[in-house]
Amino acid sequence: MSELAWDEYQRRLREEDAIVFVPVGAVEQHGYHLPLGTDWMMARYMARRVAAKVGGVVAEPIAYGATSQIRTGGGPHRCGTTSLNAETLIALLHDVLVGIGRHGARKIAVIDSHFENRFFLDEACHRAQDTLALRGHEARILKMLYAERINPETMAAVYRGMGDPPGLDLEHGGVLETAMMLYCHPELVDMSRMVDEARPDFPPYDVYPVNPDWVPASGCLSSGRTATREIGELLVEEFVGHVTDAVRSEFR
Amino acid sequence: MSELAWDEYQRRLREEDAIVFVPVGAVEQHGYHLPLGTDWMMARYMARRVAAKVGGVVAEPIAYGATSQIRTGGGPHRCGTTSLNAETLIALLHDVLVGIGRHGARKIAVIDSHFENRFFLDEACHRAQDTLALRGHEARILKMLYAERINPETMAAVYRGMGDPPGLDLEHGGVLETAMMLYCHPELVDMSRMVDEARPDFPPYDVYPVNPDWVPASGCLSSGRTATREIGELLVEEFVGHVTDAVRSEFR
Amino acid sequence: MSELAWDEYQRRLREEDAIVFVPVGAVEQHGYHLPLGTDWMMARYMARRVAAKVGGVVAEPIAYGATSQIRTGGGPHRCGTTSLNAETLIALLHDVLVGIGRHGARKIAVIDSHFENRFFLDEACHRAQDTLALRGHEARILKMLYAERINPETMAAVYRGMGDPPGLDLEHGGVLETAMMLYCHPELVDMSRMVDEARPDFPPYDVYPVNPDWVPASGCLSSGRTATREIGELLVEEFVGHVTDAVRSEFR
Amino acid sequence: MSELAWDEYQRRLREEDAIVFVPVGAVEQHGYHLPLGTDWMMARYMARRVAAKVGGVVAEPIAYGATSQIRTGGGPHRCGTTSLNAETLIALLHDVLVGIGRHGARKIAVIDSHFENRFFLDEACHRAQDTLALRGHEARILKMLYAERINPETMAAVYRGMGDPPGLDLEHGGVLETAMMLYCHPELVDMSRMVDEARPDFPPYDVYPVNPDWVPASGCLSSGRTATREIGELLVEEFVGHVTDAVRSEFR
Amino acid sequence: MSELAWDEYQRRLREEDAIVFVPVGAVEQHGYHLPLGTDWMMARYMARRVAAKVGGVVAEPIAYGATSQIRTGGGPHRCGTTSLNAETLIALLHDVLVGIGRHGARKIAVIDSHFENRFFLDEACHRAQDTLALRGHEARILKMLYAERINPETMAAVYRGMGDPPGLDLEHGGVLETAMMLYCHPELVDMSRMVDEARPDFPPYDVYPVNPDWVPASGCLSSGRTATREIGELLVEEFVGHVTDAVRSEFR
Amino acid sequence: MSELAWDEYQRRLREEDAIVFVPVGAVEQHGYHLPLGTDWMMARYMARRVAAKVGGVVAEPIAYGATSQIRTGGGPHRCGTTSLNAETLIALLHDVLVGIGRHGARKIAVIDSHFENRFFLDEACHRAQDTLALRGHEARILKMLYAERINPETMAAVYRGMGDPPGLDLEHGGVLETAMMLYCHPELVDMSRMVDEARPDFPPYDVYPVNPDWVPASGCLSSGRTATREIGELLVEEFVGHVTDAVRSEFR
């Protein structure tokens, strides 16, 4: 979208009824070997791939996301993790969706890559749809965490040979994200900086103020040592398929 | 707390350094056989049980919670599901926590029972701690979804004899909640009104406006037919134990 | 409402055009002899009594209310008085009213018991009605401080034998509230803990920060010594009558 | 304040520790014979009179106030009644108080003339004091409805000869305000346009949307027919005395 | 508007389709020789003059404006400069415009005199128009900085004889404002207190916290020494003409 | 910043006291020949160039900016112009600045490229500095519209040979932006799609709702026909110099 002139964008909306993709991510630590922009870059990558398949337009990503939680993303205290307050994130996505919808987009797909964003994005989508409907705009909004569903065979392949796989709950800066970045943005991954640390043993609750000792020094919740470009390809192509199916299914 | 005179409450805080429990739930449909207040009642029950063990005080519950999502709670469109906007819920819990903390409580435990509340409560706890700290109050806040962790043996017992257990994702108005309510509030459960419907087959995304056809007519995402008081007891006592362990561990 | 299944609640709204009652109170000190929850308990009591007469449904109370003022409720500094910011209270009642109204309730009665809530509730009702009307819902909202009107004969009976009655301005934790609680929730009143103190002599203004010396040590603005269950019955039954008349008159 | 150069204002604050008065009123209908600005003009008049006595500075009035309620000010639907949302009024007074306090004013007096403003101003004062204290400013804030207290002899004089005085609850556009305006701003009163109507018989509750039939056609809740400049003088001079006493007492 | 009775105001709106003028200014330092209220007084003056020509009504001014910036108004740190937060100013003007528009005004003219208000007023006008349109009101809003356009000949006359005119960017408390105040409010100008200082040499950026050293001691960004009543008349009459043309052109 | 691992980012802040640059732009129509992302791309370009010179880190841009105004950017109604509400933009920049500042950045430079952002960014910077200072962080924030100052000789070169140069007020999608994009992002400029239209003759005011007829069909306020890569280089290098001087001067 940023690279289109306005009239071309208008033509895509009016003549093609094009889907507008809005990637949402985060600026969040992902250990020593992955960049701070891992989340929003992956969201943008997914949106671009799927848009190319279905003929959509990709809006500029919402790069900053919801506050990182200690048990899912290492917490807000770690240097570089730069998050938005809940109200800000909701308002930001709301305004962007309304801006897109009031110019005539009738199919909008929000592609999320940051677990903590979940309910804030739901709130923004819900409210934007209401704002638009009140003013006579008919936009429908689809919202999807691109990695929400993984085939069991894929998981088996990802964890092949690991005696003790960490499980999805500890996949922050671990095998999955490392592998996907090796496939999509290999120049931003530095496998030589990866360290192997004991996985955290989180209790089933949170405390405020956060206790930095809960998280390994690197910020990763599990090791990405076994990640390869091939695993990344497997995952990414599967996710591209899931998102493509979703938008095709909902937007005909 | 509501039943104490203020000076007795003050004594508990100052002399006993008592933990103040804040239950947070929802007013949300749970099928034909469970009441709308299932969530907040269970949160309050848990808080009371644990407070009795550790000598704490239970504040009045926050009964209304975050917007019900269609894939986890049946959605906001269903009659009776009465939710708060994100900003309202955050502000509400924030203000209550600040009110408790500025009067001298140094240990506050937020007990959540509604999945969709998660990140909103995190935001409120985070911010309340900041508000209090800026003004010289030292409160520490623990936040826990009471059912966050379940022992595998318990799950096996819950699903014993079921060829095709629904899994936790579809446990809305299903075996777990039904069983727990049979144990804690049996007078509010009407097993005769339960219906057996095909479980929904949710896609891995959400759409706005919501599509009511995604959810079975009853609003339950799986059947609670096999629920018994005994299963409820098993679950509830385990959860009481987890929450008790949590507050004892964090608040010494 | 919390005890109903959603379809029963829906039936009440659609077939009976039932009135939904929303009690609003406060968590506020009421001296040594009355509990912190006095206000919201009385609001809930009134709503239940009237709902039983007119066939309505009582929603979960909004237990936390507006900031206690020093000259009407003893002030926000007293331990246990746990209040909401103005914006929070307005948003909370607004969201609850909108949640009720958009599911089809056309008659909603807000029953208030906390003097300081007054204009915040007006704002919330006004705005919720607007929010609903914009979206095609026809709810009408009635808002009433249950004790707004008292017959002179009742007041004479309440103050019988007192040479120097305090007047309604000082009736915080005094004869009226004590008597009503003796009637409605006697198990929560401890007459033995009541102390007699000089009534405060408030100036006709407020100062910020508040001056704690303005209020007697107990937090009561007048003595409830002469309260009896009979006086409570007199008051409560009169108020039940006033609220019943109000909803019958407005909602036919 | 508006007429002072900044350095003179600074001198007054630093050398004289001058009290800064902030009048708050409303733009609200007051019948056919009084102007829409009655409230804020009276607040400003009071502030000026008292400032002249005690050597203070009068800030520009906050002319627009809280939403007029039907039973106290005739309601928001009447043409010309131009009010602020609750959050706006709170933020407006907050910002003005903080602006004054952070430049060194240590004594600030908010003079209110509009009944519906009450709790919103409390909230703003409370919060502004907190905002200032957090940043090291020591301002104390006094807030007063200038007409909060009236001597019984004065009331007797005001109502002399009336068989059936309306009472303070119906004194909107009635004898009191008419008389005070005849004394303070006689050029804005047109006694020839006054009409005598039956006083409204308000129920003890409010409904939303408001019912315009509750209020007499003129918008006055009682007649100001018997108002005279002499009555106005009596009232105004008494109120000037009360406000003067208040600020002298609190600010030494 | 403040001096009209409500029915007269209503008649003006309904029968004359009168333009309602809303002046917006600031309370901001203007050196030693001009009063803090210079901005809002000039906005009100302009509105009154134009309203008299076109038969409009002038609403009470919004006296407090947006935060003064150091390079245009001397900055927020200077004693007496009393500003509103952005959200407050937007909400304030929004509410006032909506209040005016929902009572039937179809032509509203916002007259601004404070440079920093610009985009906040745009936002408020934009949103108020939306709020009104959603509810069926047709108000059109014109917003104008009264001094936005100056004829080159006028500027030549203003700066006649000055070897090195400061330019409009430094005209804060300088020749233009001084001259206009000498013409409109001469009793509030004290030419004897004016000092001549070196003009500031601002860099093309801002820093936070502000650096007070950037601004001359007086707070003026250039000298008003050469200001005369005649120059003021020239400017004011030209601006009155521009604003009159604007409202006539847009509102027929 | 997005491409750094967190510990490298931390090292840059702690050991090098690195300046963090935050580009802020807009998604706004710029005629048929320039892309919607022109503003934020130029802001990012400037930040990157200057950061390379002074050794700073560039944070992810804030791509969406303040509502486009009709007289400066063609207005909000044009398809593709996707803007944020004022409160959203302020909160967004505030949160990002606070996120950066609380992790230890002491030098933050906000680089703006969208005229309408101006006062919103001031507000955000002002408030973020306050938020950080209250919590003990010492960040200083510099905010600069990169094109705020242009040397007269440069302007002469830009307009060389034009009999009637448009002036900076009409430079939206005109010679300046076209030339700079030809230099910085030539692949996104399509000179063949440029059309020559009569320049708009804006009145000195705004109206709401906006009148689309005020703006030429292309959305450009003047023609970029004479733009060349050489002119772009001249402008860009000058601006790079100004921004570099600014940050060197303020941050030593």
From TrEMBL, chains A, B, C, D, E, F:
PANTHER family xrefs: 2-AMINO-5-FORMYLAMINO-6-RIBOSYLAMINOPYRIMIDIN-4(3H)-ONE 5'-MONOPHOSPHATE DEFORMYLASE, 3-DEHYDRO-SCYLLO-INOSOSE HYDROLASE
Protein EC: 3.5.2.10
Regions that span the bilayer: none
Record-given protein name: Creatininase
Obligatory cofactor(s): Zn(2+)
Xref: Gene3D superfamilies: Creatininase
SUPFAM superfamilies assigned to the protein according to its UniProt record, in alphabetical order: Creatininase
Domain of life: Bacteria
Lineage, top ranks: Bacteria, Pseudomonadati, Pseudomonadota, Alphaproteobacteria, Rhodobacterales
Keywords, sorted A to Z: Hydrolase, Metal-binding, Zinc
GO biological process, one term: creatine biosynthetic process
Organism of origin: Roseovarius spongiae
Enzymatic class: hydrolase
